[in-house]
Specification:
nucleotide-binding, 381 residues, disulfide bond, Elongation Factor Tu (Ef-tu), domain 3, 9-stranded antiparallel beta sheet, ATP-binding, single chain, tRNA processing, MnmA-like, globular, Rossmann fold, alpha+beta, SH3 type barrels, 5-stranded parallel beta sheet
């Protein structure tokens, strides 16, 4: 196959590209220039897609012996990821920019261009697996190493995208093995630190970054009764489940910590309360998709597991597609309450190791008023 290997400049994508070449594919490496400041340099493990990363990717491509190109996707990245991130915070939601980047850049814009140029697949260094079922359908599954599994951030992939994706690291038992392989191949990135935090906020100061773009306006902090108990410097700086940085100045009546329960951007207020009030019995989203073949009848409730963060444990749940107030939603009812769920987060649905689909959370239902879900059979998939 003719394979386009997305090379970020890190160890994972370098080894993935090398394995694709070793498997006999015709491989071309490409680095996505996403920063609008091409002279930006990486700082330790913060940031990615910098000029330094581009040079690291080129060195790896040269050692593998494959052609290498840099494609400028900075404008689309700004529109589809950075601007979306700002807009979501302005709406009082908590976005996941890595999900948007995978959805709109790496497996939409990149794959679209790759197919137009005659490539059969895009290979990346994600830790996830693609399994072909007995009918020949491709499914997205967790990686062999659950500690490194990245299938959550790939939950936005569609059937068509999975059909043209390749994850050479999916069966690798550990990151240490990948680093050892990179060292054996002579890659200079063998011990390069993993990137973390938000790539376009390399100093990690999300609050300050948002304040520069959204503006900081003082507002009120309310308790659950609506009483004003403090003031803040801008609602955009808070997210549901947050404990630190409230600066209320006096303890709660029971002496227990307060947590952010709700962010209301329209009136610039933040609602706080006890940790127990964060327990959520139902989540739902009208923006949802299936990663591969969908259930035969998704309106029939089915058993599954739901994961609401990249490194969270999956929770047993019941899901269904339902029409609520004229909107078609994926509704997920966990068998035990989820804690600290914020609108804007992504809920990824699994059946066993298979990624079944995902939704962006629009609304939640408090565990204080919701009944426990009944047992139902697993659907036909």
């Amino acid at each position: 196959m003719k394979v386009l290997a997305a090379m970020s400049g890190g160890v994972d994508s370098a080894v993935a590209a090398a394995r694709a070449k070793d498997a006999g594919h015709d491989v071309v490496g490409v680095h996505l220039a996403l920063s609008r400041m091409p002279g930006t340099l990486r700082t330790g493990s913060r940031g990615c897609c910098t000029i330094e990363d581009s040079m690291d990717a080129q060195r790896a491509a040269n050692m593998i012996g494959i052609p290498y190109y840099v494609w400028d996707f900075s404008e689309r990245f700004k529109l589809d990821v950075v601007d979306d991130f700002v807009a979501e915070y302005q709406a009082g939601r908590t976005p996941n920019p890595c999900m948007r980047c995978n959805e709109r850049i790496k497996f939409a814009a990149l794959l679209e261009k790759a197919l137009a140029l005659g490539f059969d697949a895009v290979a990346t260094g994600h830790y996830a697996s693609i399994v072909t079922d007995s009918a020949g359908n491709k499914e997205l599954h967790r990686a062999a190493a659950w500690a490194k599994d990245q299938s959550y951030v790939l939950g936005v992939l569609t059937k068509e995208q999975i059909d043209h994706s390749m994850f050479p690291l999916g069966a690798t038992p550990s990151k240490a093995e990948v680093r050892a392989e990179a060292a054996a191949r002579g890659f200079t990135v063998a011990q390069k630190p993993d990137s973390h935090d938000i790539c376009f906020i390399p100093d990690g100061d999300t609050r300050g970054w948002l304040a520069d773009r959204v503006g900081a306006e003082q507002g009120e902090i309310l308790d659950r009764t609506g009483a004003v108990i403090g003031r803040h410097e801008g609602a955009h700086a808070f997210t549901v489940g947050q404990r630190k940085g409230l600066n209320i100045g006096f303890p709660s009546d029971d002496g227990k910590p307060r947590f952010v329960l709700e962010v209301r951007p329209r009136d610039n207020t933040v609602v706080v309360g006890p940790k127990a009030a964060l327990d959520i019995a139902e989540i739902a989203g009208s923006t949802f998709s299936w990663a591969g073949i969908a259930p035969l009848d998704p309106t029939e409730p089915f058993d599954c597991q739901v994961q609401i963060r990249a490194h969270a444990d999956p929770v047993d749940a019941v899901a269904r597609v339902s029409v609520v107030d004229g909107r078609t939603e994926l509704v997920i009812t966990p068998r035990e309450p989820l804690n600290g769920v914020a609108p804007g987060q992504t809920a990824v649905v699994y059946v066993g190791t298979r990624v079944l689909g995902q939704c962006t959370i629009d609304r939640t239902v408090s565990a204080l008023a919701a009944p426990a879900p009944a047992a139902v059979p697993v659907p036909s998939l």
